[in-house]
């Protein structure tokens, strides 16, 4: 059964959705970072899938300071507007601190092996990259992190393995931005970048309008192999 984990930081506390594997004495932890819609059904399903694969999945509420417990749907136009407003006002530096606190808590969870990976989508993809550059975990997997090109200069600070999935027709990460990201990442052997031709932003979102079965299956297989390699 899913559980809730409360994490305290300097200016308050936030909750995380936790999904555990069955009949596993010790498991690595994967921190799953949300899109702009909060820890919604899609993010919870991804966490549940990781639990089914033998991981302890922890999905922190990144928008807790502004709108705690947010659970929206990409199918609702009003939720898009609300999500973008929260994204525009989001404190990325504070978010990295929250994720670092989640990673630290994950290392000491009951039943945790001590190894922690971080993955995220869209906003969460950007936050995965920033956490890789500024904080610590054992492995990172980012899916199409919007705004990554603005922080491309931090790629050299990534010291743990990072896998990055980039959609070639991403409407939020244009061709020029992709060139910037690719060039910055090539200079760091810790970063592995894969591009997916013909795919839009959120191509790996379960049930999303731009979901691409073939690309999502390939990306997720790469992610599974990557986490197995670095968290086992």
Task: Report the count of strand segments.
Answer: 8
Radius of gyration: 16 Å
Shape: globular
Q: Biggest β-sheet: count, sense, barrel?
A: 8 strands, mixed
Kindly describe this structure.
The protein is of the alpha/beta class and 232 residues long. The protein has helices spanning 41-52, 77-88, 92-107, 123-134, 175-186, 213-231; strands at 3-9, 12-19, 27-33, 56-60, 112-121, 139-143, 162-167, 191-196. The chain has an eight-stranded mixed β-sheet with strand order 1-2-4-3-5-6-7-8, sandwiched between helices. A hairpin with a 2-residue loop joins strand 1 and strand 2. Helix 3 (92-107) packs across helix 4 (123-134).
What secondary-structure arrangement, pairings included, does this model have?
Layout: E1 3-9, E2 12-19, E3 27-33, H1 41-52, E4 56-60, H2 77-88, H3 92-107, E5 112-121, H4 123-134, E6 139-143, E7 162-167, H5 175-186, E8 191-196, H6 213-231
Parallel strand pairs: 3-4, 3-5, 5-6, 6-7, 7-8
Antiparallel strand pairs: 1-2, 2-4
Helix pairs in contact: 3-4
């Amino acid at each position: 059964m899913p559980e809730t984990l409360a994490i305290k930081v300097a200016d308050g506390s936030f909750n995380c959705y936790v999904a555990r594997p069955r009949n596993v004495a010790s498991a690595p932890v994967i921190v799953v970072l949300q899109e702009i819609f909060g820890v919604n059904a899609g993010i919870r399903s991804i966490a549940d899938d990781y639990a089914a694969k033998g991981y302890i999945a922890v999905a922190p509420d990144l928008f807790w300071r502004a709108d705690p417990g947010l659970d929206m749907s990409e199918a609702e136009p009003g939720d898009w507007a609300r999500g973008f407003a929260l994204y525009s006002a989001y404190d990325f530096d504070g978010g990295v601190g929250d994720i670092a606190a989640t990673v630290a808590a994950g290392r000491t969870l009951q039943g945790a092996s001590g190894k922690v990976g971080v993955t995220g989508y869209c906003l969460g993809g950007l936050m995965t990259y920033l956490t890789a550059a500024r904080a610590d975990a054992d492995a990172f997997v980012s899916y199409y992190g919007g705004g990554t090109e603005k922080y491309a200069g931090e790629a050299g600070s990534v010291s743990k393995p990072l896998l990055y999935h980039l959609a070639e027709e991403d409407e939020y990460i244009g061709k020029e931005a992709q060139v910037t990201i690719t060039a910055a990442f090539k200079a760091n052997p810790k970063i592995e970048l894969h591009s997916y031709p013909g795919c839009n932003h959120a191509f790996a979102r379960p049930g999303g309008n731009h979901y691409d079965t073939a690309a999502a299956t390939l990306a997720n297989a790469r992610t599974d192999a990557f986490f197995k390699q670095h968290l086992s």
